[in-house]
Amino acid sequence: MTLFALLKQGFLIHVGLLAVNAGATIHADNCYRALFPCSSSAALATASAFCATITAGGVTATNYPTRATAACGTTAARYLSACSAGPTCGLSTSTTTGLTNSTTTTSTTSDTTTSTTSDTTISTAISTTSTISTVSTTVASTTSTTPACPTAAPGNIIPNSDFECGLSPWTVEIPDSSASANITAPGNTGASAFEVSLHARPSTPVRGVSARIFSQPIAISPVAGYTLTFSTFFDKLDNGFIGVMVNNNPIYTVDATDKGAGAFKQNSITFFPSSVNIVLKFEFLFVSTIASGVDRIDSISLVQI
Fold first, then answer.
1. CA–CA gap between residue 37 and residue 43 (Å, rounded)
2. Which domains does the chain have, with CATH numbers?
3. Are 262 and 236 in contact (CB under 8 A)?
4. What is the mean pLDDT of the chain?
5. Quick one: where's region Disordered (predicted)?
6. Is the distance from CB of 103 to CB of 40 less than 8 angstroms?
7. Can you give the chain as a three-state secondary structure string?
8. Does residue 257 surpass a pLDDT of 90?
9. Residue 29: CB partners within 8 Å, gap ≥ 6?
10. Distance from C-alpha of 180 to C-alpha of 198, rounded to nearest angstrom
11. Scanning 16, 170, 286, 299, which has its CA 20 to 30 A from the CA of 89?
12. pLDDT score recorded for residue 89
């Protein structure tokens, strides 16, 4: 007999068994509910396993589930009747609703019920499916970032030449206790400029210098000439001077009375260094008779010619 014929015969026997059982009355009484509690998937699995062995080997089992004996007693017929029906409820389904990125895992468990007619035992698999949804929530976060320092103009070899990124890598010295220095706004072309303020008559200047700012060593070509340009600002015509030095050698002086007050003015000088590195320095000298003043520099550029 072919496998298909055997399967077909088994199917017909199973259908006939269902017809026989359909004729019997199965009461959803306390015994049935105690054996198959729908609220517990673990209890359902245990009851199904018990029903699969209740007539194993032709001997009726007596290891009745403890939770069912109060309702079913110890009469095998009560258990056979309940087992022949099997559980009519499935395992509970847990569903979680989320916002995004939901993944679903499906697990299947098989319970077995046994129906007995005369000497023939037919086992029917009952499959229940439990679906569990796992949800991950996406939380939007906002990160503030500091804007990158602007790139120097082509050919300009001075870093942070317009003070848009603070003072670094410049160094500031303030020998005069009547003076102070800071980054201020607005600048010549950008948002910032370097400013020296005099709050009282110069009291402790060094050789007339109330404040100075100088660069880190800058690598240059000693056989080439360079053009230095920068902008200066004086709030009054009698403020004094801003001196320019390269490697502590004076190369240029800006006089407030020559440039005017109240606006940035551009300055330019060409020089020929004799070393492979230079330090560029700006010195602020206030007239000794004034009690207040504001000087600024900005837009510094050093370009090889």
1. 7
2. 26-135 (no CATH), 171-304 (2.60.120.260)
3. no
4. 75
5. 94-118
6. no
7. CCHHHHHHHHHHHHHHHHHHHHHCCCCCCHHHHHHCCCCCHHHHHHHHHHHHHCCHHHCCCCCCCHHHHHHHCCCHHHHHHHHHHCCCCCCCCECCCCCCCEEEEEEEEEEEEEEEECCEEEEEEEEEEEEEEEECCCCCCCCCCCCCCCCCCCCCCCCCCCCCCCCCCCEEECCCCCEEEEEECCCCCCCCEEEEEECCCCCCCECCECEEEECCCEECCCCCCEEEEEEEEECCCCCEEEEEEECCEEEEEEEHHHHCCCCCEEEEEEECCCCCEECEEEEEEECCCCCCEEEEEEEEEEEEC
8. yes
9. 71
10. 7
11. 16
12. 61
pLDDT confidence of residue 79: 77
Distance CA 69, CA 282 (A): 101
How far is the C-alpha of 143 from the C-alpha of 39, rounded, in Å? 48
Q: How confident is the model at residue 71 (pLDDT cuts 50, 70, 90)?
A: confident
Task: Give the span between the Cα atoms of 121 and 56, in whole angstroms.
Answer: 9
User: Backbone dihedral region of 99: left (phi > 0), alpha (psi from -120 to 50 degrees) or beta?
Assistant: alpha
Q: Does position 167 have pLDDT exceeding 60, yes or no?
A: yes
Q: Which two tokens stand for residue 98?
A: 């989320």
Q: 303 exposed, middle or buried (CB, 10 Å; 0-12, 13-18, 19+)?
A: middle
